[in-house]
Amino acid sequence: MSWQTYVDSNLVGSGKFVKAAILGQAGGVWAATPGYTVSNAAHYRARLPLTFIVPTICITPTSPSPCPAFKHNLTFLLSADEQKAVLNVFNDPASAQASGVRLAGQKFFTLQVNERSYYGKKAADGVVIVKTKQAVLVAEYAAPIQAPEATPVAEALADYLISVGY
Fold first, then answer.
1. Which structural domain range is residue 68 located in?
2. What pLDDT score was predicted for residue 83?
3. pLDDT band at 27, cuts 50/70/90?
4. Count of domains forming the chain
5. Which of 9, 66, 82, 165 has an alpha carbon within 20 to 30 A of 140's alpha carbon?
6. Nearest partner of 149 among 124, 166, 132, judged by Cα
7. CATH of the domain at 32
8. Whole-prediction pTM value?
């Protein structure tokens, strides 16, 4: 099975996660949800990590009037710095506990971190990060999904990857 299949079928395909990536512990992205990619920090800061609708005002000679909203479909970009920070969560859990983790420009507050797993929260959404022998799974879920529904999915995939040497 390809790494992309693990992301598409086992994580996002489970219906519990909205985006996910598998990072190599030695660096690099092995697979990711389309658009949830690594870029340099300057590039990702120029984009907003979400799809949104911007209401605008049209100025006419007589008065301002509402214009049709413009929908912006922007990609979720994980910066190279964020990728390094994710990999460092397990080397320095105290720092992750104190500062949280940023993914695609969004800060997640730490709920729990140990030598294998990191659980973070941002409003009603959250993230599960799990370390295997050679990889790190990063999976974000969104409300109404809750941590007790999402966490076992990512942990089970990590258990499987560990059992086959990854």
1. 3-163
2. 82
3. confident
4. 1
5. 165
6. 124
7. 3.30.450.30
8. 0.77
